[in-house]
Amino acid sequence: MPKKELKFFVLLIVWLLLCYPSQAQEKHKKPPTVGLVLSGGGARGFAHIGVIKVLEEEGIDVDVIGGTSMGSIVGGLYAMGYSIDTIEKIAKTQDWNHVLNDLIDRKDLGFYEKFAQETHIVSLAIKNKKVNIPPGLVYGQNVTNLLTYLTAPAYHAKDFKDLHKPFVCIATDLLSGKAIVMDTGNLAIAIRASMSVPSAFVPVKYGPYYLVDGGLVNNLPAKEVRALGADVLIGVDIQTPIFKQEEIKNLVQVLSQSIFLNAEDNFNASLKELDLLIKPDIDPFTAMDFDKADSLIARGEKKAREMIPLIRAFMDSAGIKPVNARRHINTFPEIDKIYVNKVVFVGNEKISEKYLAKNLDIHEGDQISLTELKTKIDYLYGSKLFQTIHYSLKAQPNGETTIIIELEESSLFDVSVGAHYNDYAGTGLLVNLTGRNIGVPNGRLAVDVALGKVNRFSVEYVMDNGLKPGFGMSAHHFNQFGYSYDDDGKKLISFNMNVTKTLGYALLTVNNILRYRLGYELEVNNISQNISLINFENMNNLGGILFSDILVDTYDRYYLPKEGYRLLAHASYGVGKNTDINLDDNGDVTYPVNKFSYGAISVDADAVVDLYKNFIARPSVFFYSLLGDNVPLIKTPFFGGFSHSYFHSYQPFPGYGFMEITGNQAFQMGLSFRYNFWHDHFLSAKGRILSINFDPDKSYKENQMYSGWQLTYSYYSKIGPISVSMAEAYPKKVLMFDFSLGFWF
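and the corresponding structure tokens:
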């Protein structure tokens, strides 16, 4: 071989030897481990979802995840194996007002608790003979149970590295002020601790720690995600920015500033750890805008799409090869049924395990779904015997599961306050003391003191045993003022009625929606004169009554309900003495005392019918029939006015004054339409027709027939409904107006 060709051949071999290793190395080079870091920021964290959607579309399948606060919720679910589509659906479909408060669905409340919830504005526990102010506005019952439900498919994983993608989140120990890395244990509790905004949520007890929101010290856990093995980091910053003095204008901004201010240096240091930062433009949305999930997700997606050129450049520089990262299904196996090994109760002190087991109704060997388990927990929580009830699942070697129920009992007594105003009764204030599990199991004591133009004092003790017989006893004293009118609607007599009565009854309830009572009532009432055109002396009445009633109530809320129906049927027989007022033949006023006996039956029913989206109809019917002579005024049916009354026989009627219409027999039909035009704002139109003492032998015009209409604007506020109404009736034809605020009591 010539020297020239030999030289060329040697050079070719050397070149191939030098190039091949680098090409082989390039071909087999391990792709970088990609970490995703999600900051906290309350509702603004919904923007994380939009960002992840775009990252997946670009072919980035992150390997490890970390988050703080809201970032821990999105990150934890994503690390578990939830598809981003499913997480988006969860964000958009949750009733966040319910989740982030300790609200109890009315269907889950004990029968007697339903009405108390829609009477009181504020309730505080009494502990050690003092009113106790809780360490947070919300104990987190609903949010913890939602997180437990969502994370249940991963309950086998006690180390978060064993999730579909390794995960870590951050909480702050309120006792030491240190950041606590949450990477083992109960995933739901770890996320709940990471999102516990101080003062808003009660801190989480976790071993030796008392945990609150991780954003206080580390709102962007970049180093912690790097420690999971990430080679490159993508960070999403949705934190509320630090405000200048002139920008702080409301409580949300003050709270946000106080949470994130001390962590600002740590946050800036974490930003330097990132290889790619995505910071969505979220203003003017705040950390409290949980009802704006759609818009916030869109903001995150918009920013990420604007950054696609930078994202692709980052992928090239980091050596990230696009993959088919977009998933539309979850990667974990769904839990169909739990095979129950046993149920363990933790934290109960005053309440026996026997009571808990009976009411939870889950037994060894049962098969139960997560939805059924949540329903039973909610039902038990509705007794209001517990501050919180949470559950966790523990896998057993035989494939069965132990359900651990962790309880924090409520105090024996609560003190509550309510307030209202309407044009009839003026301003009223209610102070209530309620004791639960008092005297006997399921014993409930309630003491009310209502002060105002219409005063009331009542004591009620009830033992509600559900379908097993229970009992109740109560004593009431109240004053109710009213009027007597002439044929033209002019007030002739203004009177005040003081009523004292005691009741005792046997009791059955079914599923917290039906109550049946059979009992007695002893009643004394005194009618005295106020300002009046006719002078009269005080009149006293004394009576004893046997009664039976049934109440069925499935409304989702008593005021402005959106679904359900209500039926009250009542029958009674009474005897006693009644002082009446008469004019003798000489025109003198006399006060004969007459014995009376009477029978009465009544039916009051109405329902909500969903017509279209936020538009509902509400038909109603009321029937009252009274048979007897010399019947006391308090037992006579009355109609008129806008307000409620303590009289069982009273019904509002649009366009007439309070108690202006009366008679022994009454039949009323009504139909109202209501439109929920924005949030908790409503417009309604109501029409009613009333027949008094109907005589079939008389013509329609000869009978006492009344009709009326009413238009109302209402706002369902935190302190109760606020309403402005106007009404007119026929044949009276006088336009009337009313304003009311708060729950009636």
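(Above: one complete record from the training split.) The longest strand covers residues 491-510.
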